[in-house]
Amino acid sequence: MTHKTRITELRSQLGDQLVILGHHYQRDEVIQFTDFRGDSLKLARDAANCHRANYIVFCGVHFMAETAAILAQPGQTVLLPDSQAGCPLADMADLADVEHAWAQLGELMDVEEEVLPITYVNSTAALKAFCGKHGGAVCTSSNAEAVLKWALAQRPRVLFFPDQHLGRNTAKRMGIPAGDMLIWDPIQPFGGHDSHVLQQARIFLWRGWCGVHQRFLPEHVTTWRKRDPDIRIIVHPECRMEVVDLADEAGSTAYIIHRVEESPPGSKWAIGTEYNLVNRLRNEHPDRSINSLSPGPSYCKTMNLITLDKLAHVLDGLGRGELVNPVTVPPDVARPAGVALERMLEIRK
Length: 349
Fold this sequence. Notes:
Blueprint: H1 3-14, E1 18-23, H2 28-31, E2 36-38, H3 40-48, E3 55-59, H4 62-71, E4 77-79, H5 88-91, H6 95-108, H7 111-114, E5 115-120, H8 125-133, E6 137-139, H9 144-154, E7 157-161, H10 164-173, E8 181-184, H11 195-200, E9 203-206, H12 211-214, H13 218-227, E10 232-235, H14 241-246, E11 249-250, H15 253-262, E12 268-272, H16 275-284, E13 289-292, H17 308-319, E14 326-327, H18 331-348
Parallel strand pairs: 1-2, 1-3, 3-4, 5-6, 5-7, 7-9, 8-9, 10-11, 10-12, 12-13
Antiparallel strand pairs: 4-14
């Protein structure tokens, strides 16, 4: 029996007890079996709204499954097809390093009055909880500007982690000068800066980045401009500032999809984001010219750890009454992490 046949049978057998989520960066072979596709937060909220589902299989990476577990209804279980599917960006900021940075800033200023921590949703539950405990919030690439504006209205400075590029691009779009932003290097005392410089800054940007989006370079943009002056270049705000500045547009995964879908037949696009999504957009819209911004496709290796056989393995386990790779978040972490997520949702309103 093929994996496709087995998955189809098990989905039918489990019925409303099961919901399968697929992040936009997943392989097409996996996406075809998902009940919902989207970005990490949308999927977590979709799952939480499926009140009859007992099992949520999250085809994504670990921090996404954690977020789903935090927002899940009582009695729901979140499963990850591959327990090794992590996120290198999320791993660039851990709780110990962030707490150390907070303590060091506390030697120079009253952090609880002067600094607000903001974490990108691409982070561990522990860091979301840290923000919840210290008055901060979570943000996504869609609402980073709204959250950052909210944060600066609460306190004069922000510690933004773990993605420096999203933080910098968002702050720049808000009109914050580059001189008011500093990179915080966690392996250096006080982030690599003296006290006077730190006391003048408004945005502390954690030294982290997404390997997928870091691969897009300014020369990729200029090459496309020379090749086809009619091309429209759209990139994710996790890209370097120099790439975002040269692009026609920058926006979240959902924004990129929307812009391509609403464009007229014959439109030409070079897209700076993960290749599985770019290729899917090309296949779904053959009347448009859709290309990856970089000559070498930029894949998320950990997203690609989720395969058809691993999805089938998780569902086989459910068919036997076994939980394969359950993802849980301890209550003492889930509660403050949930507070940070709820603050974000209130800001969106």
